[in-house]
Design brief:
44% of the residues lie in helices and 20% in strands. The chain has a single domain, classed as Rossmann fold. It is globular. The protein contains eight helices and seven strands. Strands 1, 2, 3, 4, 5, 6 and 7 form a seven-stranded mixed sheet that branches. It has 207 residues and is α/β, with parallel strands linked by helices.
Length: 207
């Protein structure tokens, strides 16, 4: 059976992190809903807090370290992406933006992306629409209609039975992602890049 690859990017800075918790909940719901359709999913989580130094160095050197290169490949090779950022000053975090800045701007074209964010108050929820959604639209990704924002109070009200509580919003967004993936064919594994030895390149130039 072919397996879908789901990449989950969490830009939370603390440990434990509500951003990572929301990312995990979204991934779990997506996997569960795809399993109901007989589809298997392989999930790879990218914790940006562990890559902060590598991301900064990449801007200076132009080359990603091994860990950052692996994270970039996990995102670009995935069939779908869940991207979750904390909201700072009414926008995504600098670390979140910097990670997507080091990815080729064409690498996410056509890729389904579920966007989500965490913040202290509900007032920051619109940052998903005026900052995060435009970012992935610019990268020509397929951004799902439902974005999930979790304020601090949402976690305490998770089981209060509200018709639009956080668990229901998570399931609704994950359901959209599962439905979109279910209608697709998992991507074929990318072939490793073939490196031509320098001696052969030099010989070819002499011909």
């Amino acid at each position: 059976m072919t397996v879908f690859k789901l990449a989950v990017v969490s830009a939370g800075l603390s440990k434990p992190s509500s951003t990572r918790l929301l990312a995990d909940r979204l991934a779990e719901s997506t996997v569960r809903q795809l399993a109901l359709q007989g589809r298997e999913v392989e999930v790879t989580v990218v914790e940006l807090r562990d890559l902060a130094g590598d991301i900064a160095n990449n801007f200076v050197t132009g080359f990603p370290a091994a860990a950052l290169r692996g994270a970039i490949e996990a995102v670009t090779d995935a069939d779908a992406l869940i991207a979750v950022t904390p909201i700072f000053t009414a926008s995504y975090s600098g670390l979140f933006k910097s990670f997507f800045d080091v990815i080729d701007q064409d690498a996410l074209t056509g890729k389904p992306v579920l966007i989500a964010a965490t913040g202290g108050t509900p007032r920051h929820s619109l940052a998903l629409e005026h900052a995060v959604r435009p970012l992935f639209s610019y990268l020509r990704a397929v951004v799902l209609p439902t974005a999930v924002y979790a304020a601090t109070d949402d976690w305490g009200a998770a089981g209060d039975g509200h018709t639009d509580g956080l668990p229901r919003r998570i399931d609704r967004a994950a359901g959209e992602l599962a439905a979109l993936l279910a209608g697709r064919t998992p991507a074929e594994p990318s072939l490793p890049e073939q490196v031509v030895p320098f001696a052969e390149q030099l010989a070819a130039l002499r011909v």
